[in-house]
């Protein structure tokens, strides 16, 4: 196992293929929780908790030492499904299968150890259960769902915060979303981010057509319009095509995860209806859908497409036609 940390916004695609990507929670709530923990460490209770740390770590190490090297067999393997529309998922699929095996191995003392004779040797193994797959699916939605997202985590975080702010402002001012404009200065106030950090992520959102930049008067920079309509905001991260335990399907395109009560619930929508129309009077061509990988390199394999907000003068809404 190798752990790497980085402050880089973009991660090399080959590294993304081989690793599970976790990110730091930069929300205000998490900062508040960290401050509370830092203060508690200055108290008597904090001093006592620090002395207990070694004992807690020793307990976890002893629990790991109880695990034995035993093979894991997955009797549900042929019924599992996974995304197969990109070559990069060949490695992501193995991450998913390995995650299931690791969960089963962790619970080996709650499982029957089976034996089989093969080529004169006795092989010991345990079997994956449906509960292992259920747990693995939940973790895969959270971890692989972030890895396969076309936006880096902090860019996605900024988009969600802009979306919530625009929704509230439009309701407060009784405006259509397409008529609301915002500046980087306003977003610095809303998010508490520094200008450099905000500029990087906002530029990425503009490049991928989640927001539209409008030129202000000469020398006054840009103001922005949100094109993103909030697709999947309430669903959380997900990986399309994971079969729930006991699902009788070999084709995830025919029966997708979350389409009925026997499967896991859906998360963030993977594909929007279509991209918005072109700007009238400027170009007869419609903007092409943007398909990019989670590490945001323009030459990387595509992931999913999010539909764009079709409202306003910039992108006429279909309903207004």
Keywords, separated by commas or semicolons:
single chain; two-stranded antiparallel sheet; disordered C terminus; 321 residues; mainly alpha; 37% helix; 3-stranded mixed β-sheet
For the terminal residues, how far apart are their CA atoms? 56 Å
What general outline do the C-alpha atoms trace? Answer: extended
Main beta-sheet annotation: 3 strands, mixed
Assembly state of the chains shown: single chain
Q: Which stretches of 5+ consecutive residues score pLDDT under 50?
A: 248-321
Could you say which structural class the secondary elements and strand pairing correspond to?
A: mainly alpha
Alpha-carbon Rg, integer:
24 Å
Estimate the strand proportion.
5-15%
What integer is the average pLDDT? 75
Number of strands: 5
Give, in order, the helices and strands.
HHHEHEEHHHHEE
Number of helices, where a helix is a run of at least 4 consecutive DSSP H or I residues: 8
Fraction of residues in helices? 25-40%
- Read across the widest sheet, the strand sequence of neighbours is 1-3-2
């Amino acid at each position: 196992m190798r752990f790497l940390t980085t402050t880089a916004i973009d991660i090399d695609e080959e590294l993304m293929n081989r690793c599970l990507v976790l990110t730091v929670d930069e929300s205000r709530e998490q900062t508040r929780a960290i401050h509370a923990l830092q203060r508690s460490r200055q108290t008597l209770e904090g001093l006592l908790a620090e002395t207990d740390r070694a004992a807690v770590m020793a307990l976890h190490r002893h629990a790991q030492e109880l695990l034995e090297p035993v093979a894991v067999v997955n009797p549900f393997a042929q019924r599992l499904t996974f995304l197969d529309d990109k070559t990069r998922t060949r490695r992501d699929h193995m991450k998913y299968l390995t995650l299931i095996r690791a969960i089963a191995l962790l619970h080996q003392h709650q499982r029957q150890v089976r034996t089989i004779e093969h080529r004169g040797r006795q092989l010991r193994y345990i079997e994956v259960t449906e509960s292992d797959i259920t747990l693995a699916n939940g973790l895969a939605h959270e971890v692989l769902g972030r890895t396969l997202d076309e936006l880096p985590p902090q860019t996605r975080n900024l988009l969600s915060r802009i979306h919530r702010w625009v929704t509230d402002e439009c309701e407060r001012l009784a405006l259509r979303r397409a008529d609301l404009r915002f500046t980087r200065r306003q977003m610095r106030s809303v998010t508490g981010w520094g200008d450099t950090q905000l500029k990087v992520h906002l530029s990425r959102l503009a490049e991928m057509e989640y927001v539209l930049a409008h030129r202000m008067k000469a020398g006054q920079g840009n103001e922005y319009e949100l094109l993103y309509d909030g697709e999947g905001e309430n669903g959380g991260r997900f990986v399309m095509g994971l079969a729930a335990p006991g699902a009788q399907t070999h084709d995830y395109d025919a029966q997708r995860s979350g389409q009925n009560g026997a499967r896991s619930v859906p998360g963030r929508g993977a594909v929007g209806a279509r991209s918005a129309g072109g700007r009238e009077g400027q170009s007869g061509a419609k903007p092409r859908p943007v398909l990019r990988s989670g590490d945001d390199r323009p030459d990387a394999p595509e992931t999913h497409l999010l539909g764009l907000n079709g409202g306003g003068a910039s992108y006429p809404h279909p309903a207004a036609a």
